[in-house]
Amino acid sequence: MDQIYSTIPSAQLIVELCVQNNIKHVVISPGSRNAPLTITFANHPKIKAYSIVDERCAAFFALGMTQRFNAPVAVVCTSGSALLNYYPAVSEAYYSNLPLVIISADRPPHLIDIGDGQTIRQENVFKNHILYSANLKGDFHNSKDQSIIDFNAVQTHEALQTAIWRQGPVHVNAPFDEPLYHKTDTLGIKIPVFKTLKPSLDEVHASRFVEAWNSAQRKLVLVGVNHDEQIEAEVLKLLSRDPSVIVMTEITSNISDQHFFTNIDSILAPIEQEENSDKLFEVLQPEMLVTFGGLIVSKKVKKFLRNFKPKQHFHINPREANDTFFCLTQHFKTTVNAFFKNLKASLQPVDSSYFKTWNVIRLKTLEVREKYKYEIAFTDFAFYYSLFENLPQDEIVHFANSSSIRYANLFDSRREIKAFANRGTSGIDGSTSTAIGYAVASQEPTTLVTGDLSFFYDSNAMWNNYIPKTFKIILLNNGGGGIFRILPGNKNEDYFANYFETTHQLNASSLCEMYGIEYVEAHNLDEVDNELPLFFERNHRPQLIEIFTPRLENDKVLLAYFEYLRAHIDFQSVLGIKEAVSSQN
What we know:
The protein is α/β, with parallel strands linked by helices. It has three domains: 5-184, Thiamin diphosphate (ThDP)-binding fold, Pyr/PP domains (Rossmann fold, 3-Layer(aba) Sandwich); 215-366, TPP-binding domain (Rossmann fold); 378-552, Thiamin diphosphate (ThDP)-binding fold, Pyr/PP domains (Rossmann fold, 3-Layer(aba) Sandwich), CATH 3.40.50. The chain contains 24 helices and 19 strands. The chain has a six-stranded parallel beta sheet with strand order 3-2-4-5-7-6, with helices on both faces. The protein has a six-stranded parallel beta sheet with strand order 15-14-16-17-19-18, sandwiched between helices. It has a five-stranded parallel beta sheet with strand order 10-9-11-12-13. Strand 11 (288-292), helix 11 (299-307) and strand 12 form a beta-alpha-beta unit. The longest helix is centred in the first third of the chain and has 21 residues, at 146-166. The radius of gyration is 26 Å and the shape is globular.
């Protein structure tokens, strides 16, 4: 490809600094004010450019690519409301620690607030959810004003370095004056070469941690979203073989061991329903909590650890620590592997019955859950049994919000899958776009499991030319927002179906026909069990299977599941407190 540049120096500068900072993928939405950037990015031999019309979809598409690469991906838009459509993905990137680079074209300052079209106040527009805002100065075609070039270079470089090393979103806002389409084949400015700003990790002072670890008989390790760090086998062994330690994971934790607790809510929810739940939880209360990874999905474990706080809470993460349980003791700014490698010789197993106590409940829960499968009619819950029986080994699976990821966390796949979900802000916007972006970046078989509202909300996600043949969508269509039937609220009020559940009679067949996606449907468990194996085998073009489940039954079956567990597990006996309870009565 012949290299072509815009004649505007700041456009040349932005693109070359992106290349210098190893940004290789740029998602562009069409517009006029961003023409200088589009011309330069689209014609650069070291940049892979993508064209996606809908800015909201474009930003989430780029977000999915950052999940795959664990490196910055840029999105480029024109001026005005186009930029605001990036905000949902910006906030998701901010709370998920993903290095999304927003590059927006702007009007020159003298054209702001005078009534020009496609013009808003763009400087610092993401100020509450951004790590760095670079507000560049305007320049002119073939300008040699070195002071402007130097200022814009420093601002842009610092923004890009911040995205790389602090792992979060940054914004570069560049005002361009007309004409916008002039081109040249010559780089007209000297691009500065900067040193990287890589911060050093904190020196770990962990004497307090070691002392607590070696003395606590009840230790809980809770792992949140973990996309980028491969936890070493030695660390997993250390955590899983100590009788005083239990490890709780969610499907997005992406680590597994036969001794880990993977279905948190299935254990905690039935205990909540017991009359003496406080007594039961006191037996299970940890003395010490260790967390790593990102955010946690389970509300049940948050409630448990907030009400029955550990004495000490240590978090391991190179970037930040959230005081989710209101008892944070110390934050170690390092990686999990490095942390335990340094301390391994100092950490001793502690004689304890803590794991054994929890594990009896875990094993009983798994046993009862298998029995429940044969007690229920075809519903969302029944589908998930089939899903986890049929998921191929090593499949990449994206779960949409809100019901999809919560159902998934009730199951213990015991398969090596890589699981993702947009849990930074937990919105339904962008789930499909993110999954497609990841699939494009990886070119590996990728499946999105989504509900109907999430899918239809983000249906523009399929409006692009990049969807791989191995990309698949499993769409659970229960005719509305099923999560609202599970949450507290009066489901019998007249307004509920319209304003909360938002019932509908839509299906995805016409959308699939329009976008060239192979479509099949299923209406019962036999059809699901017959179709899913074939669905995962076919890879000749993108596919969608739409599974229709009964709107008014799904919530009943899910809520009855926790009651079924409670009725079939004698928690008092398992936890050894039956006599104490009886004596109080």
